[in-house]
């Protein structure tokens, strides 16, 4: 399969409008000063709570769950399992490894902007096959992998709360006392010498798993994108099982907002870029680290998973290219909310969008020579 200039042109045509929307968002704040930070926040909320959920619902509802390529989904799961094993080994055995960086590295190497960037890009490259596969990937990412990420972040926050309480206990007076919060109880008993700094700290209970899960499900309940994926795939099951068409009045109401999903998401991304003090917020070293994970480690793991389950032809090519799509914006939102390397994720989103086009065209050209 030879890649011609016409094929590359189609990809450029599909991607250029995304960059135009991003530049307009950036310029509206940085150059023309049309929006202030408060108005920018309102625009971001509009995208988060209206256009993106309806955009996600539209694509989820269009999937035929009875024709899902489960080998493709299995390859995706295997690739993520490979990443998890490598990161767990790194965190356990390397002096530079850590639980927190493992979470961030997982986000960088596996979570992609599959709908906003992936759909127009893969459609230009591989037609409807590319669209179908990238939508399937995005649905599983929203329902499974982002949910797991949210749970892990909540677990990390609970563990951090314990450490904070222990430090507080160590710095308290030498009298016997208890520290109680919503997740655990820490009991402090004085030593033989009565010195507060030498107190023995006894944990009478571990963080409540049910409490952590309650917080996780509360976060999910407040995330309309989770609803959009689940309701959309539920409708897809019903409509394809009993051949029920969506009422035109409902479809029109959804489309009028969902069609704005791509443009407003990229416009919002441009606004976010303009609000940053530095274009590269985390420095060149961490930026390079993030780009290696995003554009090379993720696709390499996906290639292993795809070959393991026997994918071939255009399905194999789509699997590898969709793994190299730019960083998921949702992963940055979570990182910012939980205070875990948000500067690294923001840089990955911004720089990844800029670097994505030439890198993905390169993948497209190289994979085109594979039979």
From TrEMBL:
Per the record's keyword annotation, is Transmembrane included, yes or no?
A: yes
The superkingdom of the source organism is Eukaryota
User: May I have one GO cellular component term?
Assistant: endoplasmic reticulum
Q: How does it sit in the membrane?
A: Multi-pass membrane protein
Q: Where in the cell is it found?
A: Membrane
Recite the UniProt keywords alphabetically: Auxin signaling pathway, Membrane, Transmembrane, Transmembrane helix, Transport
The record's Gene Ontology biological-process terms are: auxin polar transport; auxin-activated signaling pathway
Which Pfam families does the annotation name?
Mem_trans
First-listed, main subcellular location of the protein, grouped into a coarse class = membrane
Membrane-crossing segments per the record = 12-34, 46-64, 70-91, 98-121, 133-153, 216-238, 254-275, 287-309, 342-366
Q: Which InterPro entries match?
A: Auxin_eff_plant (IPR014024), Auxin_Efflux_Carrier (IPR051107), Mem_transp_PIN-like (IPR004776)
Q: Does the keyword Repeat apply?
A: no
GO MF annotation terms: auxin efflux transmembrane transporter activity
Q: What does this protein do?
A: May act as a component of the auxin efflux carrier.
PANTHER family per the UniProt record, alphabetical: AUXIN EFFLUX CARRIER COMPONENT 1B-RELATED (PTHR31752), AUXIN EFFLUX CARRIER COMPONENT 5 (PTHR31752:SF2)
* Family, as annotated: Belongs to the auxin efflux carrier (TC 2.A.69.1) family.
Name assigned to this protein: Auxin efflux carrier component
Taxonomy of the source species: Eukaryota, Viridiplantae, Streptophyta, Embryophyta, Tracheophyta
